[in-house]
Design brief:
By secondary structure, this protein is mainly alpha-helical. It is built from 4 helices and no strands. The protein is globular and about 40 Å long.
Length: 94
């Protein structure tokens, strides 16, 4: 199991809250798979991040209300940007 949604250096309670909140918007986009790739160091970090982003967009395409679709797309972009900018601090570290 991974560290939950958020970087490894976030306090565990904060990661737990973020992880629970993400379940309101994403089902397939498992941070678990992203964390597995980060922990193994394989595939490359960029590949892990791209697959995570693609899974979030697939989840967004399954949402029934237009407003919620846009929230999912925005969150997907935000999460992807955060892992691209700061993921190096967690890659191969947990």
């Amino acid at each position: 199991m991974g560290n939950g949604l958020g970087p490894i250096w976030f306090p565990a309670p904060v990661r737990a809250i973020l992880t629970r909140l993400s379940a309101l918007f994403f089902s397939e986009a498992g941070w678990e798979k992203h964390d597995e790739g980060y922990a193994r160091g394989y595939p490359a970090r960029a590949v892990c991040d791209r697959k995570f982003f693609q899974a979030m967009l697939r989840d967004a395409s399954r949402v029934e209300t237009t407003g919620r679709v846009w929230v999912c797309i925005w969150l997907a972009g935000f999460f992807w940007l955060m892992v691209r900018l700061f993921g190096w601090a967690s890659y191969r570290r947990f």
